[in-house]
């Protein structure tokens, strides 16, 4: 079997578009494969994703308007260099952009602000009326049942206190979301990672490796539209910050049959970020009337006068990679990845303090301790597998299939898909034994999802549905053995 010198070509051709669309914020797939190449090695690549993510208002949203494509195109580079310093010691630098998000809502829907936006949804207002109606019945020692509640609700709605609240809420229309130049909900998150990997090879079969990881994160989030209630007009500017973590793993190979298996763990990385937050509601002239009508003490919002640091922790992950020769000039390969999204959340300081006030006042059911801007309910599992074959002395190709579990459903409105299935094709051209250029394309069937705001997370309410979406990914990579 002529596989000893061919396995690198077979596998590299699959990599340019491997992980460009995955659950939650996962982007690159954090591959370690470049470090496991024989000898001295360099590669650089560029991946591009073109998603189509469309949906429709649904759930607790009163209207059923269409939502146009909110998934923005994006591209990201990667690079790696690996040096075999001695027969037993190796060193590598791996650069990628492991996590990210790019999305923007446009058109006429609950994620775009306009003059008809209400501060609270009809369901929220009905909940306030019902809560006060029950309190009124209990204060008067009256029975609490459907008939008495209906009568008490009518009494509450006609009261001067509720009329004052209704007037204040009406006055807030056309105000929230008007403090900035953009009326669209949008998010952009970017990370960069540099891994410094040290390897020890006690023999030709085993490779133990570990090293520190430096990671940066930055981003912007703008919430607009009636879906976000009092957060309509919220802006968060996440200043770029740096955190450190580590990775460790082991690999086993039998070069004669192109067998290679590796298991790599990457740690969580903490970032104490400065987030500049703005909230249109706080500048609303009628805020005191709104708070009084909602039963909220205005002094509880004093914490929102200053920005404070927010802790963001990017998740731990495990990658299992495997390849083996299955016949002359042919290898099979597979990658299994786990990412701990279930324990991930983002709660900017002001956002969180306001959520605690709202939850503590009973304005957000089941959230007495507040809620997060973004969180996920499940960990991500993904599998990509395929076959690569040498076609000639200079050409190799591959086919692959992939599956991603997603990170739970319902999911955040800032990334409303749940996993995927994909198919891919790759090709590699080697003009010399030491150089190559590889390209790949993948088509993704994105999983249907119900979209929730932060206030709805963990419950059954949702504001929109996204179905029958797709994405196309392209990748290009060059490599050099020296």
From TrEMBL:
Protein family according to the UniProt entry: Belongs to the OmpP1/FadL family.
Main location: membrane
Organism listed in the record: Acinetobacter tjernbergiae DSM 14971 = CIP 107465
Protein name per the record: Long-chain fatty acid transporter
Cellular component terms (Gene Ontology): cell outer membrane
Coiled coil: none
Topology with respect to the bilayer: Multi-pass membrane protein
GO MF, one example: long-chain fatty acid transporting porin activity
Signal peptide: 1-22
Gene3D superfamilies found in the cross-reference section: Outer membrane protein transport protein (OMPP1/FadL/TodX) (2.40.160.60)
Locations listed in the record: Cell outer membrane
InterPro entries the UniProt entry points to: OMPP1/FadL/TodX
Keywords noted in UniProt: Cell outer membrane, Membrane, Signal, Transmembrane, Transmembrane beta strand
